[in-house]
From TrEMBL:
<feature type="region of interest" description="Actin-binding">
    <location>
        <begin position="545"/>
        <end position="567"/>
    </location>
</feature>
<dbReference type="GO" id="GO:0005737">
    <property type="term" value="C:cytoplasm"/>
</dbReference>
<protein>
    <submittedName>
        <fullName>Myosin-17 like</fullName>
    </submittedName>
</protein>
<comment type="similarity">
    <text>Belongs to the TRAFAC class myosin-kinesin ATPase superfamily. Myosin family.</text>
</comment>
<dbReference type="GO" id="GO:0051015">
    <property type="term" value="F:actin filament binding"/>
</dbReference>
<dbReference type="Pfam" id="PF00063">
    <property type="entry name" value="Myosin_head"/>
</dbReference>
<dbReference type="GO" id="GO:0016020">
    <property type="term" value="C:membrane"/>
</dbReference>
<keyword id="KW-0009">Actin-binding</keyword>
<keyword id="KW-0547">Nucleotide-binding</keyword>
<dbReference type="GO" id="GO:0016459">
    <property type="term" value="C:myosin complex"/>
</dbReference>
<dbReference type="InterPro" id="IPR001609">
    <property type="entry name" value="Myosin_head_motor_dom-like"/>
</dbReference>
<dbReference type="GO" id="GO:0007015">
    <property type="term" value="P:actin filament organization"/>
</dbReference>
<keyword id="KW-0067">ATP-binding</keyword>
<dbReference type="GO" id="GO:0000146">
    <property type="term" value="F:microfilament motor activity"/>
</dbReference>
<feature type="binding site">
    <location>
        <begin position="90"/>
        <end position="97"/>
    </location>
    <ligand>
        <name>ATP</name>
    </ligand>
</feature>
<keyword id="KW-0518">Myosin</keyword>
<dbReference type="InterPro" id="IPR027417">
    <property type="entry name" value="P-loop_NTPase"/>
</dbReference>
Length: 658
């Protein structure tokens, strides 16, 4: 892109469209790699021959490519000993996860070891992808394989620049999906894979078609185009072997997954006592099966679902739950189990791969959940979009600032262009939205209505906040990527990070060691966490993001901007408006704008002389150095709107209106 003589939006778009037509999906815009999702397999771009080419080449010698970006990070590590982070960003479905996998493949190729017995570290790292995707990805309206969590993978290298370990840090899994799915979406892949497992496995867990399970049949979408769940089940089992999850552990994991499906089929009716509920007789078989799979007492499970332990009263005092509250209790249990299971899997992978405490350098790859705006947006979208704001803030600070600092360094007069990102401030300031949400979540009297009323009063003059006419109890934020309206009705509940005491006690008493490991007894947990204290998901997510930014700031950065060319997920369709919107909101056009605003064209001195020397042949004939010769030509032509850089090896001339 920077080779274009004139940089402007239509030119940028035309350039990308032409390249995309020829399957050239990668383009550089300065130090950013733009990657346009091809929505079709392009194996020739990623094979070993291609890796060999990029390994041999210097940056810029070959066509833009995701391998070239990883190569820069690897070479910088070798030459300067620096650690790097590759930040992959873009909307949901734009190709971040695929790009991340290509980067990891290439780094494994560069830093891999000759095969010894068993699985190598890099094989384990690569095979962690299908495992975490099976448990953490799902079909959404934007993407058939949408990551419902963010991740930062740190790959460690030893003194010989070989891969010596890795850590996967995950961020905020979308818990609500376990129990609620919208039209045309699916639950987490693993549930469908297990329903497509070999007959003997399904028999063991009393599973059948996904249509039989409430947590899967709320949407009529069961299959994914081009994906065979039975094959994926086997592939996931194999990947679990490779990442070091033992046969027994896999058995326990799938038992827990099956238990969640049975748990979701338990229904309630009015109980005999007033304001109480009871298990519907026809669904009692699911209660028994859930108890069997979780190896806990069926009666205790029943009580844990239809009764609540009163904390304020003496030990053992319980209150009956009405049918709706029992349904909520059932769903809360399912979400807690799944969330803990997901974290257990990530921890296990980390332990199995191993971290290298003596590592010389690391290369990190960041893939956060993309920006989302659905018809209905809740707390999860709020958090995902907040993390995208955070990443955008980092990008603005580093890329826009970096470009402009170059002007300053080169002695070019320049007035600063930048985004202040006030919406970030609105969310995370000590008196911002998260703080208010925490205040309301921990109060006994606040509801989602009072939370919204407080928001409306507090932020009525904030340009990034507005109160929509519809729906009630919602608020709109003007994000960098567009406006999103959030429905606040479950915000308070979803912000609370806790496991119901009843559920905790039930599972801590399971005869299955694996289940107990997911839910250590409160006494054990008390050591690490003050259970009685309110714990806010919003705040801990904010803390995690701040730590992440700190880590990113301690490394050098490479940026990859993934772009979704259309919303119908089809190859060859290039929707100009949507692409321009993504480039604008992602700061790519802003970076280009900095180049355009006053000095759209940059030429090396010798290029300028080559091109414009004809205007002053006498200058060319004289014995002047290049910079002085350029100055003489400009002076002769009476042009004042151009500027010359200070003399450095990479000296360029910036000029306008020539
Ligand atoms: N380089 C590529 N080559 C072929 N297909 C691709 C490529 N990048 C993306 N895709 C296709 O686009 C789909 C969506 O990509 P991906 O899952 O990486 O998006 P994402 O940005 O990570 O989305 P989300 O934020 O929802 O997780 C992939 O499942 C794949 O079909």
């Amino acid at each position: 892109m920077i080779k274009l003589l004139y940089l402007h939006e239509p030119g940028v778009l035309q350039n990308l469209a032409t390249r995309y037509k020829h399957n050239e999906i990668y383009t550089y815009a300065g130090n950013i790699l733009i990657a346009i999702n091809p929505f079709k397999r392009l194996p020739h771009l990623y094979n070993t021959t291609m890796m060999e080419h990029y390994k041999e080449a210097t940056f810029g010698e070959l066509s833009p490519h995701v391998f070239a970006v990883a190569d820069v990070a690897y070479r910088e590590m070798i030459n300067k000993g620096t650690s790097s982070s590759i930040l992959v960003s873009g909307e949901s479905g734009s190709g971040k996860t695929e790009t991340t996998k290509m980067l990891m493949n290439y780094l494994a190729y560069l830093g891999g070891r000759p095969k010894v017995e068993g699985w190598t570290v890099e094989q384990k790292i690569l095979e962690s992808n299908p495992v975490v995707e099976a448990f953490g990805n799902a079909k959404t309206v934007n993407n058939n394989n949408s990551s419902r969590f963010g991740k930062f993978v740190e790959i460690h290298f030893d003194q010989n620049w070989r891969i010596s370990g890795a850590t996967i840090q995950t961020y905020l899994l979308e818990r609500s999906r376990v129990c609620h799915i919208s039209k045309a979406e699916r639950n987490y892949h693993i549930f469908y894979l297990l329903c497509a497992a070999p007959q003997e496995v399904k028999k063991k867990y009393e599973l059948g078609s996904p249509k039989l399970f409430h947590y899967l049949n709320q949407s009529d979408c069961y299959e994914l185009d081009g994906v065979n769940d039975a094959d994926e089940y086997l592939a996931t089992r194999k990947a679990m072997d490779i990442v070091g999850i033992s046969e027994d552990e896999q058995e326990a994991i799938f038992r827990v997954v099956a238990a969640i499906l049975h748990l979701g089929n338990i229904e309630f009716e009015k109980g005999k006592e007033e304001d109480s509920s009871a298990i519907k007789t026809k669904t009692r078989c699911h209660l028994d099966m859930t108890a069997k799979l979780l190896e806990c007492d069926a009666k205790r499970l029943e009580d844990a679902l239809i009764k609540n332990v009163l904390k304020a009263c003496k030990e053992g005092t319980t209150r009956n739950l009405k049918t709706n509250a029992a349904l909520n209790s059932r769903d809360a249990l399912a979400k807690s189990i799944y969330f803990r299971l997901f974290n257990w899997i990530v921890d296990k992978i980390n332990k199995s791969i191993g971290q290298d405490g003596n590592s010389k350098s690391m290369i990190g790859v960041l893939d956060l959940t993309g920006f989302e705006s659905f018809d209905h947006n809740s707390f999860e979208q709020f958090c995902f979009n907040y993390s995208n704001e955070k990443l955008q803030g980092h990008f603005n600070q580093h890329v826009l600032k970096m470009n402009q600092e170059e002007y300053t360094k080169e002695g070019i007069e320049w007035s600063y262009v930048g985004d202040k990102q006030d919406v970030l401030n609105l969310i995370e300031h000590k008196h911002g939205i998260i703080a208010l949400l925490n205040e309301c979540s921990s109060s006994l009297t606040d509801t989602h209505e009072t939370f919204c009323q407080k928001l409306y009063v507090k932020f009525k003059n904030n340009n990034f906040f507005s109160k929509p006419i519809n729906p009630q109890n919602s608020f709109t934020l003007r994000h960098f990527a567009g406006k999103v309206t959030y429905e606040a009705n479950l915000f308070l509940e979803k912000n609370k990070d806790y496991v119901v005491d009843n559920h905790q006690n039930l599972l801590a008493a399971s005869s299955c060691r694996f289940v107990v490991g997911l839910f250590p007894s409160p006494a054990q947990e008390q050591n690490t966490l003050n259970a009685s204290k309110f714990s806010s998901i919003g705040s801990s997510f904010m803390e995690d993001l701040n730590k992440l930014i700190e880590k990113l700031n301690s490394t050098t950065h490479q940026y990859i901007r993934c772009v979704k060319p259309n919303n119908c997920l089809k190859p060859t369709t290039f929707e100009n408006c949507s692409i321009i919107r993504q480039l604008r909101s992602g700061g790519v056009l802003k970076a280009i704008e900095i180049s355009c605003a006053e000095y759209p064209t940059k030429l090396m001195f010798y290029e300028f002389l080559d091109r414009f020397g004809v205007l002053a042949p006498e200058v060319l004939e004289g014995n002047h150095d290049d910079k002085a010769a350029c100055q003489m030509i400009l002076k002769k032509m009476g042009l004042k709107t151009n500027q010359l850089c200070r003399c450095m090896q990479s000296c360029r001339m910036y000029y306008a209106q020539v």
